[in-house]
């Protein structure tokens, strides 16, 4: 049975929706703590704190509602991915603006360059969940 069976039968769509909600909660909490430690020095630091938690109710709704899984979840997830790409740019810019610019010291001690991309993975999970087939949908390979 396992994971491959869940993907084939359409059950994984609901699981991935729930994982998106859980991942958003954990990621939003971590981002809040890290940005709070930096005193929210740039107003753009509030964006992921606002955007990422929207996947929590969207992911929960997508578990029980096909409509939410195909409309709300992909919209919210795309916003999270876009915010992650924006955050990556801002973090790279933050490293460059430190005294000395692109040094190993600044890459290790400055804004974490890859952290926003990790947040984008939450959005990517939501986008993947939105394109997966639900168990109550017919399997296209079996419909002829």
UniProtKB/TrEMBL annotation:
It comes from the Bacteria. The chain crosses the membrane at residues 45-65, 72-92, 112-132. Keywords: Membrane, Transmembrane, Transmembrane helix. This is Uncharacterized protein.
């Amino acid at each position: 049975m396992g994971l491959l069976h869940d993907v084939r039968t359409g059950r994984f769509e609901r699981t991935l929706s729930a994982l998106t909600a859980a991942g958003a909660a954990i990621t939003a909490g971590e981002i809040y703590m890290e940005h709070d430690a930096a005193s929210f020095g740039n107003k753009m630091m509030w964006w992921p704190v606002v955007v990422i938690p929207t996947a929590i109710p969207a992911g929960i709704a997508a578990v029980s509602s096909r409509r939410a899984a195909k409309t709300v979840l992909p919209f919210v997830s795309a916003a999270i991915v876009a915010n992650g790409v924006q955050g990556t740019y801002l973090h790279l810019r933050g490293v460059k603006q430190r005294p000395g610019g692109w040094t190993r010291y600044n890459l290790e001690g400055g804004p974490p360059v890859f952290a926003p991309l990790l947040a984008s993975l939450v959005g990517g999970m939501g986008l993947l969940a939105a394109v997966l087939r639900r168990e109550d949908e017919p399997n296209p390979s079996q419909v002829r």
